[in-house]
Design a protein that fits this description.
The complex is a heterodimer.
Chain A (H helix, E strand, L loop, with lengths): L2 E3 L4 E5 L4 E3 L2 E3 L5 E8 L6 E7 L7 E2 L2 E6 L4 E6 L8 E9 L6 E2 L3 E6 L1
Chain B lengths: L4 E3 L2 E4 L5 E6 L6 E8 L3 E9 L2 E5 L6 E5 L5 E5 L8 E8 L8 E2 L3 E5 L1
Parallel strand pairs in B: 2-11
Antiparallel strand pairs in B: 1-3, 3-8, 4-5, 4-9, 5-6, 7-8, 9-10, 9-11
Amino acid sequence: AQTVTQSQPEMSVQEAETVTLSCTYDTSENNYYLFWYKQPPSRQMILVIRQEAYKQQNATENRFSVNFQKAAKSFSLKISDSQLGDTAMYFCAFMPASGNQFYFGTGTSLTVIP
Amino acid sequence: KAGVTQTPRYLIKTRGQQVTLSCSPISGHRSVSWYQQTPGQGLQFLFEYFSETQRNKGNFPGRFSGRQFSNSRSEMNVSTLELGDSALYLCASTTQAPGETQYFGPGTRLLVL
């Protein structure tokens, strides 16, 4: 079975500062994909970043980057130069290569303070 | 391209009734997945359809069912509604390749009284 754990239910960060959201997962699969999605108050789920497990290079997307540690089964999200619009619930998600089903973590509520 | 659309956006039903929710995927996407989001259980996978066939199914009772049409639009149905079915129902579409990014719709918020 696949499980995804986000141990930080709530976090806050000052505008323009950097914050890191943690995510660990458990799987026996060797090939899989990892995602971070953002869900603002509008409830629309928006992709933040995607990582393929067979790629050693950490994914980056503008101010968003990940620290992917496959051996440790860790997939943290770093947000640099935090902006007020980053305030949202962030979900870490795992998808095995064998299927199209997401396994989501419980989410981290991030508040960016002006 | 237009995004994933879901209708209706809000629904209020009473216990025992049934409900049908609709999802139109992004043009060209043939896979549609459904998720239930509740404060207590978080985001849980319901099922996935591809080319009108259910390809994956989550751990939900048989009251939850779905289908997909030839134009890739999908519907999910919940029969004999229970209070615990109150949730945000999200659908997501993707191309057929596993691991490709899933694009979510805005969701349908269902309240069961």
